[in-house]
Design goal:
alpha/beta; Nucleotidyltransferase, domain 5; five-stranded mixed beta sheet; 9 helices; 35% helix; binds zinc ion
C-alpha cells in the first residue's frame, strides 16, 4: 500500500508519495490546483493509496476546513468526503501545527513552540510531544494578538494585530504606506539610509520580539523555533532575538530556553508525513 502526504499552502501545494513499490514527490501551484481535485487525481493515479495526511494553511477542526483565507476549497468536510467516498483514511491538520510537530521531532523536544513569520505570523505548540489544539483547534493564533494600531487592516478585519508588523505581508503594507520602493527585503530595509524604510525593519524586529516573548512567557517551552520565509531569508534575526528577548519575556521563562532557527526545508510537509505514522 502507499501513503500520501500533502502540504497545501497559499502559493504551493507540495506532496510526497511513500509507497512500497513507487515513490514520488512534487510541487504544483496552489492557484491552479483545488485541494480535493488534487487528492482525487492522485488516488486515480495511485489506486494503492490507503492513507492521506494533509497539512493545510487555514483553520481546520475535526477533519473539516473551517476557514481558508488564501485557498479555494470545493469540499470543506474533507475527511468525511474521502473516507466515505474512497474508503481511505485521511487526516488534516493546520500547517503550523504540522510544522511544530516536525520541529519537535527534529529538535528532540516535546515542549516546543514554533513561531513562523512568512506571509502571515502564526505558531504551533507542542506539549508532551503532542500538538496543542485548543477547543476548536484555534490555539496558537499569535499573529492576531492585539499589539498596536496600524494605518491599515489585517486579513481578520482588525487594525492592531501583531501580524501587521511581524510578517511579510505586514512589511509590504508598511512599505506602501511609507512609499519605500523595491523588494520587500528586510535586510535591505534594515540597512537602508532612508529612516522611513529603516523604521519598517525596526517595527518588524520589535513585533517579532513581542511575539517571541509572549509565546515564551505564556507557554514556557524548552525550545522556541523561529521559521517561515522572512526568518529563513534573514539569518541576522536569530541573534537579535536571542540577545534582546530578555527585555520582553519573563526572566524565569528564559532559564534553560533554547532559541533556534528552523533547519527543516519544508517542516509542514515533514509534519504531514509524521501524521501518517499515527494513522
Ligand atoms: Zn489580524
Amino acid at each position: 500500500m502507499s501513503r500520501l502526504a500533502v502540504d497545501i499552502g497559499g502559493t504551493h501545494l507540495r506532496y510526497e508519495l511513500i509507497g512500497e513499490r513507487e515513490e514520488a514527490c512534487g510541487t504544483v501551484s496552489s492557484r491552479e490546483t483545488e485541494p480535493t481535485r488534487f487528492i482525487e487525481s492522485m488516488l486515480k493515479r495511485y489506486p494503492e493509496i490507503d492513507a492521506v495526511a494533509v497539512s493545510f494553511a487555514g483553520q481546520v477542526n475535526e477533519g473539516t476546513i473551517v476557514a481558508a483565507p488564501n485557498i479555494e476549497v470545493a469540499v470543506s468536510e474533507i475527511q468525511n468526503h474521502f473516507e466515505s467516498r474512497y474508503g481511505i483514511r485521511l487526516k488534516i491538520e493546520n500547517d503550523l501545527n504540522c510544522a511544530a510537530l516536525a520541529e519537535s521531532v527534529y529538535w528532540g523536544d516535546g515542549e516546543l513552540v514554533a513561531l513562523y513569520s512568512g506571509t502571515g505570523l502564526g505558531s504551533g505548540i507542542v506539549e508532551k510531544g503532542e500538538i496543542c489544539h485548543g477547543w476548536r483547534s484555534l490555539a496558537g493564533e499569535i499573529g492576531h494578538v492585539p499589539y498596536r494600531e496600524a494605518p491599515f487592516s489585517c486579513g481578520c478585519g482588525k487594525n492592531n494585530c501583531l501580524e501587521l508588523y511581524a510578517s511579510g505581508s505586514g512589511i509590504e503594507k508598511w512599505m506602501r504606506q511609507a512609499g519605500c520602493a523595491g523588494d520587500p527585503d528586510l535586510k535591505r530595509l534594515y540597512e537602508s539610509s532612508d529612516p522611513e524604510c529603516r523604521k519598517i525593519a525596526e517595527y518588524y524586529i520589535e513585533a517579532l520580539l513581542h511575539a517571541s516573548a509572549t509565546m515564551v512567557t505564556l507557554l514556557n517551552p524548552k525550545t522556541l523555533v523561529l521559521g517561515g520565509g522572512v526568518i529563513q531569508h534573514n539569518p541576522f534575526l536569530l541573534p537579535i532575538v536571542r540577545e534582546r528577548i530578555g527585555a520582553y519575556a519573563l526572566g524565569a521563562s528564559l532559564e534553560g530556553l533554547r532559541i533556534e532557527a528552523t533547519r527543516i526545508e519544508n517542516a509542514s510537509l515533514e509534519g504531514a508525513k509524521l501524521l501518517l505514522d499515527t494513522m
